Predict the structure of Cellulase/esterase CelE.
Amino acid sequence: MKENGKLKEAALSEVAHVKVHGRTTGSLAPLTLFWTGSAVEFNAKGSELWVEVEADYDVYEPWISIEINSFPVSRQMLTAGRYWVCVFRGMNEEAVKNVRIVRELQAMSDDPRCCLQIHAVRFDGEFLPVPDRALKLEFIGDSITSGEGVVGAKAEEDWIPMWFSATGNYTAMTAEALKADYRVLSQSGWGVLTSWDNNPNRNLPDYYGQVCGVLGGERNEALGASQANDFEAWQPDAVIVNLGTNDGGAFNSPEWTDPATGQVYKQRLNDDGTFNAEDLQAFEAAAESFLGKLRQYNPEAHIVWVYGMLGLPMMPAIYRAVNSYTAKSGDRKVSVFQLPNITEESVGARSHPGRLAHEQAARVLSAYLQEILHS
Amino acid sequence: MKENGKLKEAALSEVAHVKVHGRTTGSLAPLTLFWTGSAVEFNAKGSELWVEVEADYDVYEPWISIEINSFPVSRQMLTAGRYWVCVFRGMNEEAVKNVRIVRELQAMSDDPRCCLQIHAVRFDGEFLPVPDRALKLEFIGDSITSGEGVVGAKAEEDWIPMWFSATGNYTAMTAEALKADYRVLSQSGWGVLTSWDNNPNRNLPDYYGQVCGVLGGERNEALGASQANDFEAWQPDAVIVNLGTNDGGAFNSPEWTDPATGQVYKQRLNDDGTFNAEDLQAFEAAAESFLGKLRQYNPEAHIVWVYGMLGLPMMPAIYRAVNSYTAKSGDRKVSVFQLPNITEESVGARSHPGRLAHEQAARVLSAYLQEILHS
Amino acid sequence: MKENGKLKEAALSEVAHVKVHGRTTGSLAPLTLFWTGSAVEFNAKGSELWVEVEADYDVYEPWISIEINSFPVSRQMLTAGRYWVCVFRGMNEEAVKNVRIVRELQAMSDDPRCCLQIHAVRFDGEFLPVPDRALKLEFIGDSITSGEGVVGAKAEEDWIPMWFSATGNYTAMTAEALKADYRVLSQSGWGVLTSWDNNPNRNLPDYYGQVCGVLGGERNEALGASQANDFEAWQPDAVIVNLGTNDGGAFNSPEWTDPATGQVYKQRLNDDGTFNAEDLQAFEAAAESFLGKLRQYNPEAHIVWVYGMLGLPMMPAIYRAVNSYTAKSGDRKVSVFQLPNITEESVGARSHPGRLAHEQAARVLSAYLQEILHS
Amino acid sequence: MKENGKLKEAALSEVAHVKVHGRTTGSLAPLTLFWTGSAVEFNAKGSELWVEVEADYDVYEPWISIEINSFPVSRQMLTAGRYWVCVFRGMNEEAVKNVRIVRELQAMSDDPRCCLQIHAVRFDGEFLPVPDRALKLEFIGDSITSGEGVVGAKAEEDWIPMWFSATGNYTAMTAEALKADYRVLSQSGWGVLTSWDNNPNRNLPDYYGQVCGVLGGERNEALGASQANDFEAWQPDAVIVNLGTNDGGAFNSPEWTDPATGQVYKQRLNDDGTFNAEDLQAFEAAAESFLGKLRQYNPEAHIVWVYGMLGLPMMPAIYRAVNSYTAKSGDRKVSVFQLPNITEESVGARSHPGRLAHEQAARVLSAYLQEILHS
């Protein structure tokens, strides 16, 4: 191999212009990409660029996608270790390349050792500023929003990182359609009140105020995952909540027993198969409460609760929750929007929405957001 | 990272069931993937698989795609060195995964040092046989058939490996539609008689009999690239020739001077912009001769000359060449098929066909092949 | 013209097998097609078929579509008079043709003289039975459900029958997708509580119990339009209500003064542009009441309130109405389903949904109905 | 019905601005629409328009489509007689409507009595000039170009006018895409040398010089069908010839015996199923000769021979014919273009191309014409 003698190494914290996507502590030494869709972005004028990554995990390895001028050129597993990944080489040194290196895998609360960091770059050119986009979107969701099943054959059943994709799901597509910067907070299986299996600890609202509080373990603590998020630094124009699918599933799943207390949790069905009113009300209360929390942290944002890609059973309850919140608060910048259900054609791996389903969702959601954000 | 203690390393040559795609010398120690679309395929029953690759180059680095159960899960640049790449991990050890590791980059005749090899595997399971498919296709072409421009934004202009894709072009799609095994011989810029820039040495026909004769240099020689190909071992049901685009371009390009002899080569235009009859006839003679050569090596195959994805100027000459060959030989298993031209919507990077254009071409070509192969 | 000497004339009431679609009084002497989508259907084994129609109107002329074996072959204006229309001729006399003659225009409450009747047939063959389909659907709606704007260039602005289509709208498409018989009750501009211009008389619920009570005038009275509908004779599996769009529009339209009483009606906006709570509540009460009425007449049907093809402002109120109805009644067979909004691409004439918008609506609605009707 | 007292009747020949499409004798008293796609076009500023038509036939009745502002609003059979058809009514009298009344049925050489004429108009407004479009196209073809099978279910087998459509086939679509005026000469079953059943009289070239020479009988003679066409009055920019499909079929059809002379005609197959060389050569000679005739009448037009919607067997012969013509004449404005074959999805009635197939053909053909007409 011919060596490129012009490459110069620099810690990420020394790079003049680096744009970070996703919630972080602000640290660039190194930069930890906690959530799916988190990314580092450059406008790179030069011929060859490398980044030094560090990956670790017990079980679930992180994956990244690389986009050059908004086109996905590479997607790869990052096995454990600290090493250099070549982003591009052999390009015209005079042309400015927009580059994104995006975390494809959701924050892995099940594997506290799962970690993806970026330490440094090797480059033979100059980094130019990356302007912020005029619009900012924040997505909060579950496996759908984590892009679970976007990658992989329909027959796949393993729950592994390979089937997750940030860049191939509706969040990235919606942001691209609206030319928006965006962030994602998502946990596969989690809900508003409980997870799909009735675990009340696995709810997104409890962790909304933190950088990435869903991650436990000492290292994540040390990395600042449980710090308070700096909301002033990044205020979204719209917060899109795509939750409820797992809360609905909990009604059809076995009870969950808290190993610490022995307490048993279960969202119950009536004998006729309908939702138990009291338990459904608990979900609605949780949803209503979450809306208040979102408003507290995001005083100006439109809040849009979206739902429907894997069926509609919780929609009436979601409307009731939003209605109750609106009636009590007088807050008018909250709405509900139904997303298209998957079909035989659009389903992906693990019975989750495939790429086509995400494209369909992004098309209608971006049209809806366009309307409410510009009226 | 938790180590998987069950992984066992084996040289590729020791693996019980390995299927190789693309022309090779037959060697598995190591396996050299010369042409684009060349691949190693496994039916792997186990939870974790790694392959040991070796990549080298002066200028143009190889890329690979990994497909699990026919779904593309990863695409990555292989920088220089010998190292292990993880194919999958954490999967159900009882399920059989069909795995393909595919060379995404064409044989790089401009960089004799460009080389991609597979040495060994690490696996915790059992390899099962990979049956041959009932149908075999061979594609011969230029940049279109190399998938140049399938990857990358429309504005891209650099001629670099990143924009090439074997798995995203019409050859893979056509083979998939027909459930066929396939091989590709392609060189960007080359033609039947000359390359786009009038170089008469850059023609595919001269190298058809060899494993990968387009590659020069001592190492490729040592690896067997210039050996006679073993045609008996793999006889295609159809040979698809997608050449002529660069021969057409030569009429509009500057002359080429042979540095060794000083001889000047040029396909000439008449003053009125039409093709010089003598030079066009030279192309037709070369095409006709190539048909004879293809028939000699492939006594039973349907030969289909396809053309048109980047315009139609050579189509009458191609028809004349096929007509002349058929008239003289009585060979009835030769035909011509027009492929759809690119449009503003379907164009990819470097003004070449994008993925949509390849999908359109594959749709009509596979329907046509279906018809002639089953009648 | 060669006369077909075998044609025999018969009053419709004498025809052995005739299937009537849409609400009627049961009379076939003649048959009056009141509502859009109303139709007469034959399975006709013969070579040539004519029907004798009678059309009248002061302003708005009726249109029909003719479908042969489910394919639309003709669409034509019916000018005033009583005359024969040829349905088909010159066909194989041994083949059975399924034939539908469908009213394309909604019941025209603005033109009491508008009338479409079928008196008789001329035929040279035999009519075979037309079996009922396994599924029955009833649609209740406004201009969207009347297919206003399905026909015509986007620039069209006249409110005329030519732009209406029963066969090109989502009702026919949904029924076709589900292989269902269907009926439609729809009035352009009408709502649940009031019309788009605040007229409280123009509401569909008041007329639901009658054959076609929206039509006034002596002739319609004589034809039985205001008779009680025979609900026992035809019970739908699902009732799809697509109302609310005009109720929403009323908030943004001038007040309406009852010419008889001088009373003024207006759905009011608050100063901040939001809906007046009291007036919105009146809509919700009307919607809730309508659900009760629908259930009374259709004890077993799934009731689906659909909404969204021209925006979503009333959706929270619709959910509240359904919720309130469900809470009080315990009725579980009522749901809400959001239809896709029009886009620049899918809009038709008069700023109404075009054919593409209706296709999109039918695709998601039929998938949804499929799910709830088969679970 | 309220009478529109403002309607004034005028013979078509007295109308200030009327644009006629398709070959005619120039007579407007009445106007005879001979070929499919022939039409009368108005820019009508008024509220209500009627046309007086006269239809006759022994067997095959004519059909028309009505387009308002380029949108098809009506399609109807015209049974025998002379009567008034309402084109529109109740429209804004101040708006100008572009109106086309188009013959949907090909010239019916099998039924010399088949005739469609337009005598007069009733209108309450003013006709404005209809400008010629910048581009003119002429299409020559067989059943494909007659739009046979565009209308009707796939199962239909009768050969009747109902299944033919001018406005729903690739000729109208291509003209619309290129904003061109266009004419069509087409006969179902006919070819360049013979018809599908080896009748050498049923060839289009023999009649190209006449207005509509394919029509026999005294009345058509009297109407001027066999007059020399006035080529100076309308010179196309491109002549698109879509012939060869029936010439190919003749090889697989029984011989035809001339009832007058007893002479037997048959395009023969060799024992191995290939085309007899002599007979194929006769086709090529006929095609070559036709090109000369087309050039004689159209000195400046691009001539494009298109083929392939129902298979490709004659393509090599077509290329040879064009090649031979070009070689001898030096004429460079002649080319060949392959159209997409039908698929299971795109096939229409009577195993002919359906609307989707015509849309696909129009898309690629209009792109090709765009290229050659603007380069």
Summary: The longest helix of chain B spans residues 277-297.
